[in-house]
Amino acid sequence: MAISMTTAAAERVRSFLHNRGKGIGLRVGVKTTGCSGLAYVLEFVDTLNDDDQVFEHDDLKLIVDGKSLVYIDGTQLDFTKEGLNEGFKFNNPNVNGECGCGESFTV
Amino acid sequence: MALLQIAEPGQSAAPHQHKLAAGIDLGTTNSLVATVRSGEANTLKNTEGRDMLPSVVRYSAEGVTVGDAAMQAADNDAENTIVSVKRLMGKGYSETLALNDKVPYRLVDQQGLVAIDTALGVKNPVEVSAEILATLANTASETLGGELNGVVITVPAYFDDAQRQATKDAAKLAGLTVLRLLNEPTAAALAYGLDSGQEGVIAVYDLGGGTFDISILRLRRGVFEVLATGGDSALGGDDFDHALVSWMQQQAGVSNLSHQQMRQYLTLARSVKEQLSATDTVNFSLPGTQQQAELSRAEFNQLISPLVKKTSRACRQVLRDAGLTAADIATVVMVGGSTRVPLVRSEVAAFFGSEPLTSIDPDKVVALGAAIQANVLVGNKAEADTLLLDVIPLSLGLETMGGLTEKIIPRNTVIPVARAQEFTTFKDGQTAMALHVVQGERELVENCRSLARFELRGIPPMPAGGAHIRVTFQVDADGLLSVSAQEKSTGVQANIQVKPSYGLSDDQVADMLKGSMQYARQDMQQRLLREQQVEAERVLEAVGQALKADAALLSAAEFANIEQALAQLAKIKQGDDTAAIKAAIEHTNTLTDDFAARRMDQSIRQALKGHNVDEV
């Protein structure tokens, strides 16, 4: 089981963490809400929880809780620009269906 | 799929619940929009890749254009291209008469307020500002991928109620929800994170293209209090450019420049000025000639030195207003593109005796601070206790009898605030009361600024002084005032939202504050005089009523005596001798003591008639 990210995403995460001045890594995960079942979580991490798994990416830590991992295993996190808008994107091989806007999904 | 941003731990929003917020610096020359994404505040670029939007709006037959496109047309279509509209916000037509010769467009009177006649009809400053705000908001919602939930807009610390209300109206017209208006110096301090730093006094030195503002803030218990503001609304980097152009003209030996040439020279001057911030000498050729010229930074400093000295004088003045010295200032924050000029930095450092903060781009610092505040207010951040409070710049009060000001909320009170005070009637059977809301520090209403008038009607007839009328002043978080008055026995009430039609300039606010010090003694004497005059009037009214009702209790001689005393009092009251009025009132009081006692006896006798002692 693994989670990875692209170079573009890693660069941004590194810069955001540096800018924030604290935090040990980036939490990726899911929570059970949203119009299509599940929604992604993307947060800074200050303290680890017991069931957290840590994936190293160079000097960065991607942190996933055990329950989320089954939904997003194999996901690659990317950072892209769409017009003026820019942000992170989950390339998740487990997804079966998304709601129209893509903010929530089912597996 | 939607693009995501990193949230603070535990703050991930549910899908479709992302709160989008932006901070807007609505400037005189340029405007910017900024937002916080993944914990980082950044200004947002429009589709042309620029984050500075010139605050210029053009109304032509083809439609409305905003920003760079409008500015390019300014030369050919000056009468329909509106620049520096911020200077007109919340102003009355009569206040802007002096501007009529200075602006290329036609200012017109729109129900007392100033407006501009354009090719697309009459546009008022609120509409023009709304175009700028809508353009910025559009950039923001395209960048953030959704409609904005709310914005924070910055305004100068010296903006009064009318100017703040006009700014809010512009936002409403642009379809924006204003989370709050934030003072520009406070926003700059926020961008540097000074709100979480040590308590103390902060100076914000803001030298823009055409305006200079210096504000002294005090941070105490997380609240920024504006201690004093000052500056020069007609001094900025543009004056540096003009000084440089004059020098270039001398070098080139040309006296009269055509409009076209002037533009060339100004563009060159701006570029030379900017280069001299980084290098010691600049070589360039003078437009329209074959001549080469060289300018060193030292020479440039000499050219602009008188202008920079002017800002130092304003700093000295504002410190004096705040009752502080340069040594009391813990931190100096630099705002505005012109603070990049090395001479400005060194002068400010020398004046305040400490290195100013310059690490954040001075053009963006206000917008970034606004974005940080917007992010907190919209609910994206847990630490909601970083809510900022401001203070009211000038005392708010009511006119009382004799044209005196009764201050309800003193200046520098932290907002939001509500204060109530009870007033009563002056005459027997009085059924209505006129309330006149004023703003200022002086004792007499005529020296303060009139904000609004309204009437409370339906007061039940009662003897003078019998009614209890509770007047409540409420100032919301944006510094906007509402006043209500309620008669307590019947509950009848009246209220007003203060949306004054005339604005005050920073100079006027400063003058009003200065006036209150300068005329303190004179004001006090005036107040004492007016108080005695009001008291005299009350005595005349009361005794006159008594004479009408109970003349029978007096002998002809006594009646004549009192009448004479009243006539005397009425005459002295007209004069300005406070002591004489007081003496005449006392004389009347002594003279009528016996009469009052007899009236009292009579009414007791009447009340007790037919009752025995046990009943009483």
UniProtKB/TrEMBL annotation, chain A:
UniProt keyword list: Iron, Metal-binding
Sequence ranges assigned to domain Core in this UniProt record: 1-103
Short name of any one Pfam family annotated for the protein: Fe-S_biosyn
The protein's required cofactors: Fe cation
Gene3D superfamilies: HesB-like domain
InterPro entries: ATAP (IPR016092), ATAP_core_dom (IPR000361), Fe-S_cluster_asmbl/transfer (IPR050322), FeS_cluster_insertion_CS (IPR017870), HesB-like_dom_sf (IPR035903), IscA_proteobact (IPR011302)
Similarity comment: family membership: Belongs to the HesB/IscA family.
NCBIfam families, per database record: iron-sulfur cluster assembly accessory protein, IscA
Name the UniProt record assigns to this protein: Iron-binding protein IscA
Species of the source: Rheinheimera muenzenbergensis
